[in-house]
Specification:
Blueprint lengths: L1 H25 L17 H30 L2 H18 L9 H10 L7 H17 L2 H5 L2 H9 L8 H7 L2 H14 L5 H4 L4 H5 L4 H13 L6 H5 L2 H10 L28 E2 L10 H28 L1 H5 L3 H10 L11 H9 L3 H38 L8 E2 L15 H4 L1
Antiparallel strand pairs: 1-2
Helix pairs in contact: 1-3, 2-3, 2-5, 3-7, 4-5, 4-9, 5-14, 9-14, 9-19, 15-19, 17-19
Length: 421
């Protein structure tokens, strides 16, 4: 019932925004002739800055409130309605920007390009959720991120995927994070923003392909809870790391676990670790053997994957504008019926020589070669550590949320009879 009411409220908000957009298209800005020039406006920039700081203030208040709901009140209803507010404000009202997920690219570009001035609000949206995660777990994912909130509203019948499939699909966000940082560091593109499935819905200006992509995620989200958050979101990778070291984290029961197993199937994200009762299930010889295998496997897979990544540096660099220009200059189109590309037109107007173009392209390719080595090594390290984690089981006597994967949604607490008593 509450999901239906929340969806109805959002449809009404969506309708008002649609009418606003239609009004803009229905009455475009008039065009004047006879040399008329539009007067320069002075006020929007300070106003936009104030709005950005207001967004930061709302983010701080919302994160503080939902952390209190998760850790103190342990209220699923409170978390749900907070997520509805976040979807309405950060999603449809602020149109998904500033976005903590996309801020990864701004921070990366600022680290590698000294000429790029990153806005303070972007830094705040990148760091504040990480600080809260370090102290309270992934409360940002619980109900502040509008992407997660939108998917949470449609998860009517979530099904289990199993630990192996979760582990395999869980590697995709690491690859996405690495590619996003590589393309941002080289000044090539912001692929997180370019292929964002939900911002186009918030702004109602997505291409047909992106509408299909977003629709596919939402439809699959009926049966697979939060598919984007679990198997695509690059910011979720960083939140996962920080949450593992969180000072406080949501627990299923506020007292001793009575092993009733009622919470075992309550989590739609497969984020509850079942008990491992034996502290040392393997013999000492077996444990030593496993450690030797891991100590060999981790560096081998890291180096092998790094080398593989370096071999893909040229195809990855092919989308860079300087690489495209160099290829077009090297292989010019002779057919007079083929229109001149934008890159060639800009090259001719800039007055650069072919040698300068090739030199810039060579520098870009060198950066991609180094970055591809690092990207491949990163993926190899993650994969090897995943294998190591499955080989070494941690002693755990109770049913507890996995601190890295848990979204702090508080669903599991409703199933615990200790909580109810």
């Amino acid at each position: 019932m509450k999901k239906a009411l929340a969806i109805l409220l959002l449809i009404i908000l969506f309708g008002f925004q649609s009418m606003h957009t239609f009004g803009i298209q229905r009455f475009p800005k008039p065009e004047f002739e006879s040399g008329y020039t539009q007067p320069q406006t002075l006020m929007p920039s300070p106003r936009a800055e104030i709005l950005a700081y207001m967004d930061v203030a709302v983010l701080l208040l919302a994160l503080s409130f939902i952390s209190w709901l998760v850790l103190k009140k342990r209220s699923r209803n409170g978390v749900f309605w907070t997520s509805v507010f976040s979807l309405a404000y950060f999603g449809f009202y602020r149109e998904g920007c500033v976005c903590s997920i996309g801020s990864i690219q701004n921070v990366t570009l600022a680290m590698f390009d000294g000429s790029y001035a990153i806005p303070l609000s972007v830094i705040a949206f990148f760091l504040i959720p990480l600080v809260f995660t370090l102290f309270f777990g992934r409360t940002f994912c619980a109900g502040i991120c509008p992407f997660g909130a939108m998917q949470d509203l449609v998860s009517f019948s979530p099904q289990k995927l199993g630990s192996r499939l979760n582990a395999i699909l869980g590697l995709i966000p690491y690859l996405y994070l690495g590619l996003a940082m590589l393309y941002a560091a080289t000044g090539t593109d912001f692929i997180i923003c370019r292929y964002d499935p939900f911002v186009g819905i918030f702004r109602m200006n997505a291409s047909f392909g992106m509408y299909v992509f977003a629709g596919t995620l939402l439809v699959s989200g009926i049966f697979i809870a939060r598919p984007y958050c679990r198997f695509l979101c690059p910011y979720g990778v960083i939140l996962n790391w920080f949450s593992r070291f969180s000072r406080r984290h949501i627990t299923i029961t506020p007292a001793n676990c009575i092993q009733c197993r009622l919470c075992e199937n309550s989590c739609p994200y497969d984020a509850i670790d079942i008990p491992v009762t034996e502290k040392n299930p393997d013999s000492r010889q077996m444990r030593v053997r496993k450690l030797i295998i891991i100590s060999i496997l981790v560096p081998f897979l890291t180096v092998a994957a790094g080398w593989t990544g370096s071999k893909l540096s040229e195809p990855l660099a092919g989308v860079n504008s300087k690489m495209k220009l160099a290829k077009q200059v090297l292989n010019p189109v002779i057919d007079p019926n083929t229109p001149e590309t934008f890159e060639i037109t800009a090259f001719k107007s800039a007055g650069k020589s072919s040698g300068q173009v090739y030199e810039e392209a060579t520098l870009v390719l060198h950066r991609f070669y180094t970055g591809s080595w690092i990207l491949g090594g990163f993926i190899g390290l993650v994969f090897s550590l995943l294998i190591a984690g499955r080989m070494l089981k941690k002693y755990n006597p109770d049913y507890v949320p996995n601190k890295g994967n848990c979204f702090s949604c508080v669903r599991c607490v409703d199933y615990c009879p200790v909580e109810k008593s």
